[in-house]
Write a structure and sequence with these properties.
Helix content is about 65%, strand content about 0%. It is mainly α. It has one domain. The protein is globular.
Length: about 220
């Protein structure tokens, strides 16, 4: 049990690394807080808009790596012996812990990003084909609408559908815990994008490439 608690806590702490905040302070000084700029979100999209494409890509990649590392590597770390948790479930739990850490980071007043990048890293570690399909959906929606937030929510909605089709058509085994997580993730992504949903409905959501201070 101690190993289980340890890897979950470590996964949460890794997910809590406030990449966008750290990068912002490195580039703009210690008084700079990315959460006070642009959309106010501590995520890669806001970094992309406020600080430029290079820092934005770095933050997106590192945030995805947090979810990937927690799922694929940290979940297999057992410093105090076997965790006695199903091996197919423990990576999912650790990935979830990283996503929670990203959204509610202990290192920045529990005000982090929206969890999309870290969740994407987790899905890549578990089901790379499903991740690729969801990414293609994301790119397609953003290309057609220019709304990153809409692309993120659509991709999250597609995840349980893709997993279900993979299990039924391609006979790819998907643990019940993973399918339940995919449903919970969809709800969580919609929750973290609730302000974006309001702006989408009001017609005030910023499109990708616009120079406005409201965004995904």
């Amino acid at each position: 049990m101690l190993s289980f608690v340890t890897v979950v806590i470590v996964s949460y702490l890794v997910g809590s690394i406030p990449t966008s905040i750290i990068v912002g302070k490195i580039l703009r000084g210690t008084d700079f807080d990315i959460r006070k700029e642009g959309s106010g979100n501590a995520g890669g999209t806001n970094v992309f808009r406020v600080l430029g494409w290079k820092p934005g890509i770095f933050v997106m990649a590192f945030d995805a790596l947090k979810g990937f590392a927690a799922t694929l590597w940290i979940s297999h770390w057992q410093p105090f012996g076997p965790s006695h948790i199903d091996e197919s479930v423990l990576p999912i739990i650790c990935g979830i812990a990283a996503v929670v850490g990203h959204i509610w980071t202990i290192f920045a007043g529990f005000r982090g990003g929206k969890g999309v990048g870290t969740a994407a890293g987790m899905i890549v570690a578990l089901y790379p084909i499903a991740a690729l399909i969801c990414f293609a959906v994301f790119v397609g929606v953003v290309y057609l609408t220019r709304y990153i937030s809409l692309g993120s929510m659509t991709a999250a909605t597609c995840l349980p559908i893709v997993l279900l089709l993979g299990e039924k058509i391609f006979r790819q085994e998907v643990p019940d815990a993973m399918f339940q997580f995919s449903l919970a993730l969809t709800v969580l992504i919609f929750y973290t994008h609730r302000q974006n949903i309001r702006r989408l409905l009001a017609g005030t959501e910023n499109r990708f490439g616009q120079k406005r201070n409201v965004s995904a």
